[in-house]
Amino acid sequence: TATARPTATPRPTATVTPTPKPPQPQVDAVDQAVDDDGEIVSRNVVAPEGGWVVVYADDEGAPGEPVGHAAVGEGEQSDVVVAVDPFRLTPTLHVRLHQDTGEIGTFEFPEADEALELEGEAVADTFEADLQVTIPVISVADQALGTDGQVVVDGVTSLGPGWVAIHTDNGGELGPALGQSSVPAGESSNVVVRLPWRSATRELYAVLWQDGGEAGIFEPGQFDEQVAVNEQPVQAAFAVELPPDVYVINQPVVTDEIVVEQAFINEPGWIAVYSNFEGFTDRLLGYTALEAGSNELVQIPIAPQFSTNVLHILLHEDGGVEGEFEYPAGDPPLRDEEGRPLIFSFQADSGNYVVTEDQALGEEDTVRVPLVVADLAAWVVVYADADGAPGDIIGQTFVERGVQRDVEIDIDPDAATETLYVVLHRDAGVLGEFEPTGPDDILQREREPIQAPFRVLGSDLTD
After folding, report:
1. pLDDT, tens digit, for every residue of 65-90?
2. Pairing of strands 143-144, 235-241
């Protein structure tokens, strides 16, 4: 039997092991609800190295402004939570993967940390957001403001305990707050804020503040901050119709004019002064025009020879020829709801008096007397305290007769005491020369010196 020819053993073929490819950069998000917590979840992130997941608001179908970001490490990660500003979200949102090319761990886009691209395209995704976010808001309607000073704010939505404050208008910007009311978290309606209505402007602002300091204590600018959405304060401007009003102090008629501290009228009109006859207006003594709104320190020229002990002031319309006072043929006086003329009266035989207030010394060692009313030339004299009564004179200044406001007096600071007294002296000797031990004696009312004490604040004289 023939012997079989042996078969050659096959030579093994070399197999090449492929090099594994790095995972492709990726960022994915799914449609999701977003509430007040402001958290967006990116379901899957693959980063070739440490970087950022950035969420963008939508701008006509493209990524707009970044609204939040979160750091991610190298490799694949799931359910990355990104904290966002809930007030800047749009129903459509975009998410992108960014590099960390600047200071590591600090998000510096757009200066650095650009979006990562793959084959010329940003690593990104788009998704829809069901916005369940409470947006702080405040709404208020134009309204009439009565003498009770009550403003009604229609609606307020606050994320936490806060305040609704009513501010004056200062040339289109917020002025001081006149009053405030606390509001709880959530929605509130018909919030009532009371304020000193004479200090109101015709346009006011309702402003929402957060209660960030001591609970229940309004601390604007210190601990309580204005609430803002998209960096815009939550506030609403509104117009008020203020009640016609006149604020006038008792004053002697020693010149040919009287001065009204404040007069308010909603439309341009007139303010007129009348003499008194048995409690009613009698002879017209003088008048002047008023602008719509608040008029301060209104000077009204009058005929002083017809003055009476009591004088009356009326507000009048300017309903006929504009700029021409036509009463009684036209320009009738303003009336109350019962049809009676609004009459504001004051004493023209008030005599002399002085008004003081507690204060710190001025920079040049001065004190300020807010109001001096004198029916003759006088001296306004400052005395140090001596066991509860005026002691030594430490300063004085001369005033003409009439109504003087914010009178400044130089004093000797070394002789000042915690309590000082302002005393009125007549100028009965040499005009303009202070002669306290001579004819310039102290003015009196009902045999009592005309004087007013005040405290010196903010120095080592007081606690």
Report:
1. 999 999 999 999 999 999 998 888 99
2. parallel
